[in-house]
């Protein structure tokens, strides 16, 4: 059997099998991701820490595992939230919580451990508090450094293209 | 023979699996740590108790605290975030938790200490319910690991009552 494929010598069946294998890998990855979303109850069960506002606890490039349930948010929890109208999630700690007797709604104020002031300037407009619907999840677990690759890929897209190019090349030229 | 790429692939995979196992084991063992910590807090002085311009009550005070957090540390502990929360209820709110002071302890050797400090964050109510209010002081801690699951805990300490009327401007 030929161990090296020449571009002009492409056979249909092995190529289709390779494409199917690639499709299987992608589908499995997607299934794991969606499954995690269901189990943890969050839209994004894993986030990468982007800023140094929670140092020395979390550094840029660390990843956090999130979980969300109906338990009320209490002071001291580390939450990930989205401000209305902004896409980038922020990971900070709850320093104030006020739970309303009648509605059960909780007003939350957050602050990064490494910041001098609380997050009130980050909330949109004249908003004074965060509520449950802003919160994507609570951080329950942590792994250092693993997310740094994501940061590099976001800030220097050329690395992303390079990586995808190399992976595609490996898949095409491999035997299996 | 195996190519260089195959060898690199195998090494990388085994390394990743080993790392993941060690991280999981470290975090798993943390669960067996049963801490027994001691703490004491006392409100030394109410520095300011007034109604703000926007209508909410505000309190600033000086606290004297001593605590021993050494039993919270394991070899998988990166830091312990400790904070003191004032907890109380009002007619409109079933629970109010306001952090008054927080501190990060990064080493076990520095986990036992005493401080006398003004509150880092003012106690601000949603309303004007604080006069004569009985407030509980609860010590909370958050153990942040080198890798794995984070553990939270709390311990109610003393209660104190705020004065029945605002103090004069300080």
From TrEMBL, chain A:
InterPro entries: LexA/Signal_pep-like_sf, Peptidase_S24_S26A/B/C, Peptidase_S26, Peptidase_S26B. It comes from the Eukaryota. Its EC number is 3.4.21.89. Residues 45-138 form the Peptidase S24/S26A/S26B/S26C domain. It holds the Pfam family Peptidase_S24. The keyword ATP-binding does not apply. It is found in: Endoplasmic reticulum membrane. It is a single-pass type II membrane protein. Keywords: Hydrolase, Membrane, Protease, Signal-anchor, Transmembrane, Transmembrane helix. The chain crosses the membrane at residues 12-33. Its main location: endoplasmic reticulum. GO terms for molecular function: serine-type endopeptidase activity; signal peptidase activity. It is an enzyme of class 3 (hydrolase). GO terms for biological process: signal peptide processing. CDD domains: S26_SPase_I. Catalytic component of the signal peptidase complex (SPC) which catalyzes the cleavage of N-terminal signal sequences from nascent proteins as they are translocated into the lumen of the endoplasmic reticulum. Specifically cleaves N-terminal signal peptides that contain a hydrophobic alpha-helix (h-region) shorter than 18-20 amino acids. PANTHER family: SIGNAL PEPTIDASE COMPLEX CATALYTIC SUBUNIT SEC11. Belongs to the peptidase S26B family. This is Signal peptidase complex catalytic subunit SEC11. It comes from Rhynchospora pubera.
From TrEMBL, chain B:
The lineage of its organism: Eukaryota, Viridiplantae, Streptophyta, Embryophyta, Tracheophyta. One of its GO terms (biological process) is protein targeting to ER. The keyword Ion transport does not apply. GO terms for cellular component: signal peptidase complex. InterPro entries: SPC3 (IPR007653). This is Signal peptidase complex subunit 3. It is found in: Endoplasmic reticulum membrane. Its main location: endoplasmic reticulum. It comes from Rhynchospora pubera.
């Amino acid at each position: 059997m030929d161990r090296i494929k020449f571009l002009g010598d492409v056979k249909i069946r092995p190529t289709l099998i390779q494409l199917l294998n690639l499709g299987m890998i992608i589908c499995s990855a997607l299934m794991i991701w969606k499954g995690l979303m269901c189990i943890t109850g969050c839209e994004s069960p894993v986030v990468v820490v982007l800023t140094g506002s929670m140092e020395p606890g979390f550094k840029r490039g660390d990843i956090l595992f999130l979980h969300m349930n109906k338990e009320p948010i209490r002071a001291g929890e580390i939450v990930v939230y989205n401000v209305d109208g902004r896409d980038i999630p922020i990971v900070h700690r709850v320093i104030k919580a006020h739970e309303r007797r009648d509605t059960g709604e909780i007003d939350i104020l957050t602050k990064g451990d490494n910041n001098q002031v609380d997050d009130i300037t980050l909330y949109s407009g004249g908003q004074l508090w965060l509520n449950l619907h802003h919160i994507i999840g609570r951080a329950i677990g942590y792994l250092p450094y693993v997310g740094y690759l994501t940061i590099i890929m976001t800030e220097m897209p050329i690395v992303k293209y390079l990586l995808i190019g190399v992976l595609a090349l490996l898949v095409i030229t491999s035997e299996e | 023979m195996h190519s260089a790429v195959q060898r690199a692939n195998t090494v990388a995979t085994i390394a990743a699996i080993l790392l993941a196992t060690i991280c999981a084991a470290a975090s798993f063992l943390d669960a067996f740590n049963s801490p027994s910590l001691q703490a004491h807090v006392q409100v030394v002085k109410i520095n300011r108790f007034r109604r703000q311009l926007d209508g909410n009550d505000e309190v600033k005070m000086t606290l004297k605290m001593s605590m021993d957090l050494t039993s919270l540390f394991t070899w998988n502990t990166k830091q312990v975030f400790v904070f003191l929360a004032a907890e109380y209820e009002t007619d409109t709110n079933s629970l109010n938790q306001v952090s008054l002071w927080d501190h990060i302890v990064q080493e076990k050797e520095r986990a036992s200490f005493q401080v006398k400090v003004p509150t880092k964050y003012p106690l601000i109510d949603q309303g004007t319910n604080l006069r004569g209010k009985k407030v509980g002081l609860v010590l909370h801690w958050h153990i942040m690991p080198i890798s794995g699951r984070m553990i939270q805990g709390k311990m109610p300490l003393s209660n104190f009552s705020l004065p029945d009327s605002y103090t004069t401007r300080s």
